[in-house]
């Protein structure tokens, strides 16, 4: 057997450099870049392997481990899971910083490879700097925290273990039914240890993403249920996008006349102005989608994990509504007591289109009426003006109208995802990029970097609030470093407006959700609003920044930004509370069962009444 002597880290880099995925005859290199924040535990291991060469992987310098991992996740999502950016870190806090990103990737079914440094496998110098000791086991380290948020975890304690660990990591990273975060923890002594690796381990390896077709029996069962439907509704989830099944979905709804609604991950798969598109569904959904959903007798869930925001905490659908679920993942396919059809979204829709020949939905007229009514409401929000200042929905509408067809919108947390699922009108397929499985604050500012790396020839606009910016914005500097023009749209409403809105709607007075000075008289955080100048902050990093309080200033800034050759930030001061409300939806939250406040008591009574109307599983 031909071998080559390499350190474990050198072999890892060369292995990743040789991985390829294939779908529909098209091959794509799976790893072209690697993020890293160097420290002890990786700089003389993986860092040395990257610096020495013998590979074609480009190094990207992260500024914070969580934030670079969020950027890597966004990159893989925008690439429809066909390419990843592994993330390497030092030990201890550097490694732990990536746990949140791992949870985010796993929640969203997005492949993310994390390579945290670890303590010494030999244990000779224990405890080393940044090592947390666990008295119950010398073998436990902080990287064990990744076990709870990863689909695959391994600790490489001998250099030869890399071979099985790397193969299994790739198995999960390329499996659409079982993908998510993968962690290969790397003790820092093992990273530098040498082994005679078989050359065959480092060969070019192609992972085939074969499409899974539904069985004839599955198709017949699903078709029989749908044929009985008088008022069907299809839910388009992220799996439709990742399967690249948009054209097949268009054929299916055209042939059957079945109206469809969109999850956050599925939005933009078909045009917003498609005559059967009812818009977003659920807690942050449209009036049109939620009304049709409430009345549906059969729901066809395609490529969606049916989260509580999609189902309105299982309240949205009638007790007798039947579910048919087309999903590659068995775990998701059986939710809502659905008839599970285990298949690739494109292949499943293709089979159902043929099986339903001659069938036509009976609720097309009702759907068209609801859709027309909703579009008028949406126009009203986009054009809503207020003499006191700029509203959030008006600012969003101006930016949406300014964006070109291929420009990409990014979002994740706060009140903006609700406004965007209800109102935003994507220009083209794959131009609406929303992380709403984990709703990870900070994804917007850092994920925008990943999206821009995935699509460097397109404009990327990312939408977030001041609360998100204060939490995590380190990769703005990486955008500057890489010469990437990203449009950072910061909506400043002086606090966590989304959570304040939730707080108030459940009977509580505003408390701890606005950014105010502490009041010496009361001792509480109820003093004046803290005047924060985010434009100056961004300028200090080297970005082009704009301070915006009016429509005219916003339009002028958007136009000027296209002349810049660096990232830009729009510091948009919007009126607090100027987001859209919910439309015929409900979200279950843990309201206090006992309270002296009448409004909280009323909110709890409302909760108990709504729970009576929910589906239980």
Q: What is shown here, in short?
A:
The termini are far apart. It is globular, with a radius of gyration of 25 Å. Helix 10 (246-256) runs parallel beside helix 14, helix 16 crosses helix 17 and helix 16 (392-402) packs parallel to helix 23.
- The backbone outline, from C-alpha atoms, is globular
Q: How many helical elements?
A: 24
Helix/strand structural class: alpha/beta
Mean pLDDT: 97
Give the CATH topology of the largest domain: Rossmann fold
Name the features:
617 residues; alpha/beta; Rossmann fold; 23 strands; 24 helices; 6-stranded parallel sheet; 3 domains
Q: Which helices and strands, and how do they pair?
A:
Blueprint: E1 3-7, H1 8-17, E2 19-23, E3 26-29, E4 33-36, H2 46-52, E5 58-61, H3 65-78, E6 87-89, H4 93-96, H5 99-108, E7 112-118, E8 152-155, H6 162-173, E9 181-187, H7 188-192, E10 194-198, E11 205-208, H8 216-227, E12 232-236, H9 238-242, H10 246-256, E13 260-262, E14 277-280, H11 287-295, E15 298-302, H12 308-311, E16 322-327, H13 330-333, E17 339-342, H14 345-355, H15 364-382, H16 392-402, E18 408-411, H17 416-423, E19 432-434, H18 443-454, E20 460-465, H19 466-471, H20 475-481, E21 486-492, H21 497-505, H22 534-541, E22 544-548, H23 551-561, E23 568-573, H24 598-612
Parallel strand pairs: 2-11, 4-5, 4-6, 6-7, 7-9, 8-9, 12-13, 12-15, 13-14, 15-16, 16-17, 18-19, 18-20, 20-21, 21-23, 22-23
Antiparallel strand pairs: 1-10, 2-3
Helix pairs in contact: 1-2, 3-5, 3-18, 8-14, 10-14, 11-15, 16-17, 16-23
């Amino acid at each position: 057997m031909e071998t080559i002597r390499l350190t474990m880290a050198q072999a890892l880099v060369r292995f990743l450099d040789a991985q390829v995925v294939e779908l529909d005859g098209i091959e794509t290199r799976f790893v072209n870049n690697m993020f890293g924040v160097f420290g002890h535990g990786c700089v003389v291991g993986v860092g040395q392997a990257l610096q020495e060469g013998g590979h074609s992987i480009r190094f990207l310098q992260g500024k914070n481990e969580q934030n670079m991992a969020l950027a890597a996740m966004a990159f893989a999502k925008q690439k429809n899971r066909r390419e990843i950016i592994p993330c390497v870190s030092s030990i201890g806090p550097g490694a732990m910083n990536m746990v949140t990103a791992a949870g985010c990737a796993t929640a969203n079914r997005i492949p993310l490879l994390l390579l945290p440094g670890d303590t010494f496998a030999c244990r000779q110098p224990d405890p080393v700097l940044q090592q947390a000791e666990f008295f119950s086991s010398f073998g436990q380290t902080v990287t064990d925290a990744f076990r709870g948020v990863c689909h695959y975890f391994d600790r490489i304690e001998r250099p030869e273990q890399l071979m099985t660990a790397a193969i299994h990591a790739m198995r999960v990273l390329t499996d659409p039914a079982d993908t998510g975060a993968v962690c290969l923890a790397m003790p820092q002594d093992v990273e530098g240890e040498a082994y005679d690796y078989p050359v065959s381990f480092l060969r070019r390896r192609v992972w085939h993403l074969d499409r899974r077709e539904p069985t004839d029996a599955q198709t017949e069962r699903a078709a029989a249920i749908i044929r009985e439907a008088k008022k069907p509704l299809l839910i388009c989830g992220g799996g439709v996008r990742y399967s690249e099944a948009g054209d097949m979905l268009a054929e299916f709804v055209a042939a059957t006349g079945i109206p469809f609604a969109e999850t956050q991950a599925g939005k933009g798969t078909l045009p917003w102005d498609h005559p059967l598109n009812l818009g977003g569904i659920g807690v942050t959904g449209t009036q049109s989608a939620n009304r049709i959903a409430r009345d549906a007798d059969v729901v066809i869930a395609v490529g969606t994990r049916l989260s509580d925001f999609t189902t309105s905490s299982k309240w949205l659908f009638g007790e007798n509504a039947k579910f048919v679920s087309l999903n590659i993942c068995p775990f998701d396919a059986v939710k809502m007591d659905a008839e599970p059809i285990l298949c690739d979204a494109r292949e499943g829709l293709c089979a159902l289109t043929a099986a339903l020949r001659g069938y036509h939905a009976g609720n097309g007229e009702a759907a068209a009426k609801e859709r027309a009514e909703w579009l008028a409401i949406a126009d009203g929000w986009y054009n809503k003006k207020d003499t006191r200042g700029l509203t959030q929905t008006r600012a969003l509408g101006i930016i949406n109208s300014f964006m070109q067809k291929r420009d990409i919108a990014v979002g994740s947390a706060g009140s903006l995802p609700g406004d965007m699922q209800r109102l935003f009108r994507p220009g083209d397929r794959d131009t609406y990029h929303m992380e709403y499985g984990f709703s990870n604050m900070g994804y917007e500012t850092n994920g925008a970097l990943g999206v821009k790396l995935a699509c460097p020839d397109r404009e990327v606009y990312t939408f977030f609030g001041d609360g998100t910016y204060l939490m995590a914005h380190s990769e703005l500097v990486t955008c500057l470093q890489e010469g990437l023009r990203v449009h950072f749209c910061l909506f400043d409403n002086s606090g966590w407006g989304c959570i304040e809105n939730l707080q108030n709607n459940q009977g509580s007075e505003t408390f701890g959700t606005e950014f105010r000075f502490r009041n010496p008289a009361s001792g509480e955080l109820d003093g004046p609003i803290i005047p924060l100048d985010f434009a100056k902050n961004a300028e200090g990093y080297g970005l082009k920044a704009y301070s915006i309080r009016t429509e005219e200033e916003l339009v002028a800034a958007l136009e000027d930004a296209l002349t810049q050759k660096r990232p830009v930030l729009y510091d948009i001061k919007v009126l607090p509370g100027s987001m859209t409300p919910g439309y015929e939806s409900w979200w279950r939250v843990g309201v206090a069962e006992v309270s002296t406040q009448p409004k909280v008591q009323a909110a709890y009574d409302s909760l108990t009444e709504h729970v009576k109307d929910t589906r239980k599983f």
